[in-house]
Amino acid sequence: MSKREHTSGGPSLRLLRVGENVRHAISAIMTRGDVQDPDLDGASITVSEVRVSPDLRNATVFVMPLGGDDQGTIIKALNRNSAYIRGEMSKVVHMKYMPRLKFKLDDSFDEASHIDALLKDPKVQRDIAAIDDTPEEGA
Question: What is the C-alpha R_g of the chain?
Fold first, then answer.
């Protein structure tokens, strides 16, 4: 494998694999309730994605608090406890450099529901039906 940049512009398979290992480790830490913070007590948090920088020194962790918990408070609490989470993660994930963790709110769920609502709009449904009814060229 060469050390040159990938031409596709996306993350390499190695970065994806490392991100997935980090995601699993953080999920396990959150599930066990190892983080002792009053803002995180009883909070149900989904770790949806981890993006690792190409040098493997930084990782952005996308999380989504469930159950209507205060999202801002939970993100701040996770970032406050990122050093502890990083230390616990180092016991499970063995890497030369353990990445610094930065927690961010995952807004992809909101984006997906917004797109779903747009697709269910009657005007869009009418346009989709019109496209399906047009005959294909060469038929």
Answer: 21
Q: What are residue 123's phi and psi, to 5 degrees?
A: -65, -40
* Domains identified in the chain and CATH numbers: 13-106 (3.30.300.20)
Using CB atoms within 10 Å of the CB of residue 25, give its burial: 0 to 12 exposed, 13 to 18 middle, 19+ buried: buried
pLDDT tens for residues 46-83? 899 999 999 999 999 999 888 766 888 999 999 999 99
Cα separation of 45 and 65, whole Å?
A: 4
β-strands 58-66, 44-52: how paired? antiparallel
Mean pLDDT of the 75-100 span: 92
Sheet strand arrangement including 58-66: 44-52, 58-66, 100-105
Amino acid at position 102, single letter: K
Paired tokens of 128? 């989709």
Which residue shows structure tokens 């995180």? 40
3-state secondary structure of 135: coil
